[in-house]
Amino acid sequence: MPYTPDAVRHVKLSTATLPLSTPISDAKVFTGRQKPMTEVVFLFAEIATAQGHTGVGFSYSKRAGGPAQYAHAKEVAEGLLGEDPSDIAKVYDKLLWAGASVGRSGVATQALAAVDVALWDLKAKRAGLPLAKLLGAHRDSVRTYNTSGGFLHASLEEVQDRATRSLEEGIGGIKIKVGLPDSAEDLRRVAGVREHIGWDVPLMVDANQQWDRATALRIGRRLEEFDLTWIEEPLDAYDAEGHAQLAAALDTPVATGEMLSSVAEHVRLIDTGACDIIQPDAPRVGGITQFLRLAALADQRGLGLAPHFAMEIHLHLAAAYPREPWVEHFDWLDPLFEERLETRDGRMLVPERPGLGVTLSGQARAWTTDSVEFGAA
């Protein structure tokens, strides 16, 4: 049956604030660079077409930037009206050029990410396929690890208890935060978690960019004995050369990339050999269209993949990566959606529902602080 052209007739943008039950602290808080995180601000894009197809996407910001994302999206979103929603790359470029004076990274592309994700969700729903299947899945489940139980505001005992619960819930690996001013305390916590979960469970650590090169090398060598799956963000996110030197010096794989906000910034990581495992974040780099460009480059260089946060999106993208990846389990976003992702035997299962397989919940609507609509509802 020939393709019937469609057109975007309605766009709704909304911003919602998700409160966190407990203030969250990583190393950036203990080094005085940030305050504890108490909320996450989301930008939602809901798109409908003349033929009745719909899609939903989101971007987010932690601590700052949410209002800016929403403001930028409001300025350019009207350009979606009348466009064929299947022409996602064309639409992305149109909106990018509409806001070209503020650049092609950061807030500008993070605002477009919500729209881009919504268009991919719509396209997969129209095809009657989960997004992973539309992209071409290599697997129906992805290895998963938990981060949300390993933050530094929690005591070692609390981290151990949460690790036990995560493993009982079918999660396969445990990641904990490090990067404290007292590196001896970091090592004590890592040793305590490794002893608690055993040597067969994958264990990762995340320094959240708080070490300098000498410290990262010294502590990285001390951490070798714990058989870690990776050391994450040991250095400043933009220190590609430092990451490359560390990756060459350590047996433990180095992972980084979550804080970068464009494909171009990740290309520098790839070209310098700055990591063994790359950790892009689709909402931060501009959406799924940009993530796929980046994933192709990473695969060409033989890199592992472990996308950051937003498992509702990244599960599908990781399932379509040729090399066996990881996906990060966070339960923070659960109240925003009606559906839940399933974990079993250390893996997260790709849902069989079309598109991303999520719908916004009544709670997400209740937490909405502002919205705007374009076109005919």
Describe this protein's structure.
The protein has 377 residues and is of the alpha/beta class. It has 14 helices and 14 strands. The chain has helices at 27-30, 66-76, 88-98, 107-127, 131-135, 156-168, 183-197, 213-223, 240-249, 263-272, 282-285, 288-300, 311-319, 362-366; strands at residues 8-24, 37-49, 54-62, 141-146, 173-177, 203-206, 230-232, 254-256, 277-278, 304-305, 326-329, 343-344, 347-349, 368-375. Strands 4, 5, 6, 7, 8, 9, 10, 11, 12 and 13 form a 10-stranded mixed β-sheet that branches. Strands 3-2-1-14 form a 4-stranded antiparallel β-sheet. Strand 5 (173-177), helix 7 and strand 6 form a beta-alpha-beta unit. The protein starts with 7 loop residues before the first strand and ends with a strand.
Taking the alpha carbons of the first and last residues, their distance comes to 28 Å
- Biggest β-sheet strands, sense, barrel: 10 strands, mixed
Q: What letter string, H or E per element, gives the SSE order?
A: EHEEHHHHEHEHEHEHEHEHHEHEEEHE
Count of alpha and pi helical runs:
14
Backbone structural class: alpha/beta
* Helix content estimate: 25-40%
Strand content is 15-25%
Output mean pLDDT.
Answer: 94
DSSP strand tally: 14
Low-confidence stretches: none
Overall outline: globular
Please tell me how large the radius of gyration is. 20 Å
Set out the fold topology.
Layout: E1 8-24, H1 27-30, E2 37-49, E3 54-62, H2 66-76, H3 88-98, H4 107-127, H5 131-135, E4 141-146, H6 156-168, E5 173-177, H7 183-197, E6 203-206, H8 213-223, E7 230-232, H9 240-249, E8 254-256, H10 263-272, E9 277-278, H11 282-285, H12 288-300, E10 304-305, H13 311-319, E11 326-329, E12 343-344, E13 347-349, H14 362-366, E14 368-375
Parallel strand pairs: 4-5, 4-11, 5-6, 6-7, 7-8, 8-9, 9-10
Antiparallel strand pairs: 1-2, 1-14, 2-3, 4-13, 12-13
